[in-house]
Design goal:
10 strands, alpha+beta, 274 residues, four-stranded antiparallel beta sheet
């Protein structure tokens, strides 16, 4: 699933390609991808000009003026691509936005888990998923983020993955950040000092920033707005490396399930408590 860095890279690419362009038509090829009455969706966005493209957590948002927003929740395999010329629809194309300049925006989704909406500002703010999103990890101080975890009995990785605690972090960046901070994914937040929790969020910010600079991580389906793969997978220190040697101590990486997700870690370098 695309996480914060991938969605940020996509949003920046789409912003460069699309801001100022006008949507002329909407073609819905898979109605289940549009999570509202399809005729309302199409009538709302046709004729509107794209004024901004940005991200909130893992959610990609296109603003159409001040009071209308197309939201893309990419889920497992969603992609949003901008084309300068109209192109034939592919097998997994779900929604096509035709532009007045002859170009197009295409939403592709192999597994059909992604969701597209066209919401007013009021509807967006009242949408439960959006309303519950926690703070942005790159726009909030490590100290303030640490405060949200102090004393919590839950496992630290589960808290990182909880979008109401902090927005945008998924499995890849949780594993990478915890390894770099020396914290075991099964450690309880209540067993960690504020200093250690602050160190964790310092590493979260470093990892996310590096991933954005390297165009995100391409494991299976992710590509940016121009169809190019990311490169941060080449910088992974721990994610997906079960059985390989830890670069810090030489012990083999172990794996297990934490918060319902496969997790890789070094039992020697990553501590359960301070």
């Amino acid at each position: 699933m695309p996480e914060l860095p991938e969605v940020e890279v996509i949003s920046r690419g789409l912003a460069k390609a699309l801001v100022g362009k006008t949507i002329e038509s909407v073609k819905i090829l898979n109605h289940s991808s549009v999570k509202m009455p399809w005729h309302v969706f199409a009538s709302r966005v046709a004729g509107c000009t794209i004024t901004c493209v940005h991200r909130r957590g893992k959610l990609l948002i296109m603003d159409l003026g001040d009071d209308l927003h197309i939201t893309f929740h990419l889920k497992m395999t969603g992609r949003v691509l901008a084309h300068e010329e109209a192109t034939p629809s592919e097998k997994h194309t779900r929604v096509v936005f035709g532009l007045t300049d002859g170009g197009s925006i295409e939403f592709h989704d192999t597994r059909k888990f992604g969701e597209v909406r066209a919401l007013t500002t009021e509807e967006l703010e009242e949408w439960s998923f959006y309303h519950k999103l926690g703070p942005e990890p790159l726009e909030t101080s490590p100290s303030d983020l640490a405060e949200r975890l102090i004393g919590k009995k839950a496992q630290i990785k589960g808290l990182l993955l909880n979008q109401s605690v902090v927005a945008g972090i998924g499995n890849i960046y949780a594993d990478e950040s915890l390894f770099r901070a020396g914290i075991h994914p099964k450690a309880k937040a209540s067993d960690l000092s504020k200093e250690t929790l602050e160190k964790l969020f310092v590493e979260v910010q470093k990892v996310l920033t590096q991933a954005i600079s390297e165009n995100g991580s391409s494991i299976r389906d992710y590509v940016d707005a121009g169809g190019d793969a990311g490169g941060f997978q080449n910088s992974f220190k721990v994610y997906g490396k079960k059985g390989e040697a830890c670069p810090e101590c030489g012990e083999q990486f172990e794996s297990g399930t934490v918060a319902g997700r496969g997790s890789t870690f070094c039992a020697k370098c990553q501590k359960m408590s301070d």
